[in-house]
Write a structure and sequence with these properties.
About 50% of the residues lie in helices and about 15% in strands. The protein has helices spanning about 15-25, 40-45, 65-75, 90-95, 110-145, 150-165, 180-190, 210-215, 235, 250-265, 290-295, 300-305, 325-340, 350-355, 360-375, 390, 395-415, 420-435, 440-450, 455-460, and strands spanning about 5-10, 30-35, 50-55, 80-85, 100-105, 170-175, 200, 215-220, 230, 240-245, 265, 275, 280-285, 310-315, 345, 380. The longest helix has about 35 residues, at about 110-145. It has four domains: about 5-140, 3-Layer(aba) Sandwich (Rossmann fold), CATH 3.40.50.2300; about 150-315, P-loop containing nucleotide triphosphate hydrolases (Rossmann fold), CATH 3.40.50; about 320-385, Helicase, Ruva Protein, domain 3; about 395-460, Orthogonal Bundle (Arc Repressor Mutant, subunit A), CATH 1.10.10.60. The relative contact order is 0.07. By secondary structure, it is of the alpha/beta class. The structure holds adenosine-5'-triphosphate and magnesium ion (MG).
């Protein structure tokens, strides 16, 4: 985002100057505020309000340079322009040395003054964008950092730095939510292709025909609806990296075409006749067992050997519990920022539950639980009550509980009830149980169920509770 209508503050003890400057600049679309004493200016300035400040040098009480120094302590970003009396260039140069952006002499030439102000605004925008970009990069790096101190994660990190600098194809395997995408991102960031394009395609998210047009692109008229020529992901990733995410879900026909790209280092757009050279480093990830898919005839063995040059296994979270604490700290830091809360940590009891849980959804599940707890928690410590019910119950019970609930639904449907009616009845039972557990306190019940109080009341009315 850049500023368009900049806020400009003009400070001068001569009212006539304030008036004529304001008139000339307001015409340009700037929003102008004027102050006729430096003291008033200091009261008016707040961090981030003014983008440009124009001040006279000679004023009673405080000169323009002193004012600039004081304003700096309130707002470092505002760009400062000094007005000096005709013939005092030396002073003006000193001001620039002290950090003013520019100066103009009085009486001023309107066009020159406008130009200086326009440039000052541009300077502000540039600095603002740069700062924004730096903050974004830092935030991204912070949030994309691979956290982990376990032996398994150390091994993963070592493998990442070993393979990153080459063009070797890497296959990242692990259960859902273990951080495979993060591993791929880390390889790309540390690679010699880091500044090149990085393109990812989730092969499980799209139907087969769309995957092919996404990967290889198409020529105009290749099929109905192909109104323009489209470049595919392989072409877009030229001189960079492509991540074929969930490659285990790729159809056999597509696998054959991908194998061709790897072997020939060229792609053919759908409906095209000319192969196009591409220079792409391939990373692949999957939560499926490719060897098993090969046995079932669902994955090409030759493609497997091509992509499995290096294999990075990412262990499930339950096998590397040493990572729990640092991951929790990391997600608490992120959640604190998102919710504007100062979350200090996890209570001992809650930690015990987190440590004993077996994390079927791995790190993603942990992240969701911490972020969910952060939204609803009242104190600055995550307590047992902030954890979702499936964690609070002993794990054996949960499974049989689930099975009972499902078999109960199916039995009732077999018995002639409609699915909607059974589900609605189950919702009623859940709400009743939650109300009972919270001594009929509606706010607490709503919080437990993760819904708004209004929603709870609406549902209670529907269920005649
Ligand atoms: N070691 C880690 N450090 C920090 N965050 C992590 C780590 N591992 C996973 N995460 C976070 O967990 C979430 C899931 O990670 P990611 O998307 O990489 O998993 P995945 O293995 O690709 O899962 P899926 O197979 O479901 O696609 C992301 O938000 C990611 O930032
Ligand atoms: Mg993934």
């Amino acid at each position: 985002m850049t500023f368009k209508n900049h806020n400009i503050l003009i400070v001068d003890d001569e009212k006539a100057i304030l008036f004529s400057l304001k008139a000339a600049l307001a015409k340009e679309g700037y929003r102008i505020k004027t102050c006729d004493t430096p003291e008033e200016a200091l009261k008016t300035v707040e961090p981030g309000v003014f983008q440009v400040i124009i001040s006279d040098y000679n004023m009673p009480g405080m000169n323009g340079m002193e004012l600039m120094e004081k304003i700096r302590q309130i707002d470092k970003e505002a760009v400062f322009i000094l007005m000096t009396a005709y013939g005092s260039e030396k002073l003006a140069i000193e001001a620039v040395k002290a950090g003013a952006y520019d100066y103009f002499s009085k009486p001023f030439d309107i066009d020159e003054m406008r130009l200086i102000v326009a440039k000052a605004c541009e300077r502000f925008n540039l600095a603002y964008e740069k700062k924004n970009l730096q903050e974004r990069l830092q935030k991204e790096q912070e949030e994309n950092r691979l956290i982990g101190v376990s032996e398994q994660m150390e091994r993963v990190k070592n493998m990442i730095s070993t393979v990153a600098k080459s063009d070797i194809t890497v296959l990242i395997q692990g259960e859902s939510g273990t951080g495979k995408e993060l591993v791929a991102d880390a390889i790309q960031r540390q690679s010699l292709r880091a500044s090149g394009p990085y393109v990812a395609l989730n092969c499980a998210a799209l139907p087969e025909n769309l995957i092919e047009s996404e990967l290889f692109g198409y020529e105009k008229g290749a099929f109905t609806g192909a109104n323009t020529t489209k470049r595919g992901k392989f072409e877009l990733a030229n001189r960079g990296t492509i991540l074929l995410d969930e490659i285990g879900d790729m159809a056999l026909a597509t696998q054959a075409k991908v194998l061709r790209v790897i072997q020939e280092k060229e792609v053919e757009r759908l409906g095209g006749s000319k192969p196009i050279k591409v220079d792409v480093r391939i990373l692949a990830a999957t939560h499926k067992n490719l060897k098993q898919l090969i046995e079932q005839g669902l994955f090409r063995e030759d493609l497997f050997y091509r992509i499995n040059v290096v294999n990075i296994p990412v262990a499930p979270l339950r096998e590397r519990k040493a990572d729990l604490k640092p991951l929790i700290e990391h997600f608490i830091a992120i959640a604190s920022k998102k919710t504007n809360k100062n979350i200090k940590g996890v209570s001992e009891k809650a930690m015990e539950i987190l440590e004993n849980y077996d994390w079927p959804g791995n790190v993603r599940q942990l992240q969701n639980i911490i972020e969910g707890a952060a939204v609803f928690m009242k104190d600055d410590i995550i307590e047992v009550s902030n954890l979702p019910p499936e964690l609070r119950k002993p794990q054996g019970e949960e499974e049989t509980g689930e099975r009972n609930a499902c078999s109960e639904i199916i039995e009732r449907i077999k018995g002639g009830e409609a699915l909607d009616a059974v589900l609605s009845d189950l919702e009623k039972q859940v709400i009743e149980a939650a109300l009972k557990a919270n001594d009929s306190n509606q706010s607490k019940t709503a919080e437990m169920l993760g819904i708004k109080r209004g929603t709870l009341q609406y549902k209670m009315k529907n269920h005649n509770l």
